[in-house]
Amino acid sequence: MGEIVVLAENETRVAGEVIDGRVRVDGASLDKALGWELKPQGLCRGEVCVPVADQAALELDGGYDLAAVASALDSTALVDADLGVVAVSRSGAERGAAVHDMVAPELVLPDLTGTQVSTAGFKGKKKLLVVFASW
Amino acid sequence: MADELADTGFMVIAVALEQNKEAIADFVDGITYPVLIDANHTVTELYSITNIPTVVWIDENDRIVRPNTAAPGTDTFKDFTGVSCEPHMDALRHWAHTGEVDIDADEVAGAVAGLSEGEVQARLHYRIALHARRTGDDEAARGHFDAAAGFAPHDFTIRRSAMPLTGGDPFGADFFALYEEWQAGGRKYDGLPTPT
C-alpha cells in the first residue's frame, strides 16, 4: 500500500493508492484526510452532518474514492497521479459562508513567531482583516 | 492607527499571501497586531479573494459588515505599499468609534459573487504547484502553476503571486502584461470599490 499526500484544510499523508486516476483510501483515513468522518448518518464534522444518499457510490475497491467523498461535501478534488497527490477544496458550505451568509470564516494560520493563531479567538472585537502581499 | 483605535475594541488582523515571513520582513517591523502567514492562500478560498490588497470589516460577532473592499488598510500599510486611502481610514475610524458602517445593508448583500469554478480549480492546481515546489519538483510545479493561470487568468492571487516563485518579476514585464489583460477584461474586482 502506498501513500497519498492530501492537500486539504491540512496537509496529511494517508495510506492509499491511485487506481485509474482515482484515489482510494481507507474509510478510517477520511477524517484525517478531509476532516470529515463517514458515519451512518452521513459525513460528519463535529456536530454537523451532511447526509449521503448513497454511501455505496463513494466506495472504491474496499475503500473510498476520495474525490467522490469530496464531491458529497460539495468540494472539488484534483488528483495528480504521478505525484501521488490530491488537492481538495473546502466544502461549498464553507466557501459560501462569507459570500452568502456574511459570516466570517475562521482562519487558523501561523503568526510571525510560528505560533498557530485562530481568528475565532478575537470575537468581541471589531476586526479589520487586511489581505496583502509583497508582490 | 491601530493603536489610536485600540480603546474602541478595534483591531487589525493582517494576512500575508507569502511562502515565508521573510518576504514581508520590511513591513512588520514595529507592528503589534497579528500578522499571519497564509502560504496556501486559505483566505482567498474562504473569503473569495482574487486580488490584493483587500480588506474586510468583521464585527464583534464575527459577521462581515463591509465585504471584500479594494483598499490598502491602515496607515502602516501605506508605508509598505505606497498606496493610501484616506476615505477608507475615515470610514474605519467612524465605524470603530460608533459601530456605524459607511455602506447600506443592500450594498453588503451580494457585494461578492464568490469564486467561479475556474477560480476554485486554479486554487487546486496552485496548491499542488506549491507542494511540488517545496519537494524540489520544479517541472511539476511549473505545470501546475501554468494550469492554475489558465483556469483563472485575471486572478492576481494566482498569477501575480506565482511570479516570484517561478523566476518572474511581479513588478516588471510579466506584471505589466497581466495588468493589460486585466484592463482589457474589464478591470474586474469581485467586491466593493475603493471608498472615495
List key phrases describing it:
heterodimer, A: 135 residues, alpha+beta, 7-stranded mixed β-sheet, 3-stranded antiparallel β-sheet, 3 helices, 13 strands, globular, B: 196 residues, Glutaredoxin, 2 domains, two-stranded parallel sheet, two-stranded antiparallel sheet, 9 helices, 11% strand
Can you put this structure into words, describing what you see?
The complex is a heterodimer of chains A (135) and B (196). Chain A has 135 residues and is α+β, with helices and mostly antiparallel strands. Chain A has a domain at 3-93. Helices cover 16% and strands 40% of the residues of chain A. Chain A has three helices and 13 strands. In chain A, the strands form three sheets. Chain A has a seven-stranded mixed sheet with strand order 7-8-3-2-1-10-9. In chain A, a hairpin with a 2-residue loop joins strand 2 and strand 3 (22-25). The longest helix of chain A has 10 residues, at 92-101. Chain A is globular, with a radius of gyration of 17 Å. The termini of chain A are far apart. The mean pLDDT of chain A is 95. Chain B is α+β, with helices and mostly antiparallel strands and 196 residues long. Chain B folds into two domains: 6-108, Glutaredoxin; 117-184. Chain B is 43% helix and 11% strand. Chain B has nine helices and four strands. Chain B has helices at 25-28, 42-46, 75-81, 86-98, 105-108, 117-134, 138-151, 156-162, 173-184; strands at 10-16, 35-37, 54-58, 64-69. In chain B, the strands form two sheets. A two-stranded parallel sheet of chain B has the order 1-2. A two-stranded antiparallel sheet of chain B has the order 3-4. In chain B, helix 6 (117-134) runs antiparallel to helix 7. Chain B is globular. Chains A and B meet through strand 9, strand 10, helix 3 and strand 13 of A and strand 1, strand 2, helix 2, strand 3 and strand 4 of B. Strand 13 (126-132) of chain A pairs antiparallel with strand 3 of chain B, so a sheet runs across the interface.
